[in-house]
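Protocol step 4 of 6: structure prediction from sequence.
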Amino acid sequence: MKRIYLMRHGKAEDGFDKSDFERDLQSKGIKKTEKIAHFLLEKKAHPQLILASMAFRTLQTAELIRKTLELPKQIIQEEKNLYLASSNSMLNALFAVDDNIDELLLVGHNPGISSLATYLSDSDIDWMSTSSVIAVDLNIDHWTDIPDASKKLLYYIKPSDL
């Protein structure tokens, strides 16, 4: 059994003077991400690995979750290929995860993260809002078996739900 959390990064600044890649979280984005982080703490989430796009806002989101869950710093793995990635690119990143990892969090961007959430949850998750997260149990032993997995959506939560 594997468990995956998919999370969209927190609300970022407009970035008129920065590239999209360099945009930081707004204070509102930090607060909403912290709300989700505390929700995950209450749900006893304990990812062994956090895959995150290398964009500043996704790394900041991942770090807020890591700190709240009191996980080691080295748990965050920065993935250049997750920046604005398609759901297929994200799936390829999941296929490469070591099978010793049973619980992981992937922090990414729309539209890819929403498409992957829809696929993994067998639900219609059209557009994940910033800082929202889903948790899905996959009845598999190997990450490469995701396409054939029976899947169970545990929750889909937005900061506005808390």
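Step 5 (inspection) to follow. The chain has a mean pLDDT of 95.
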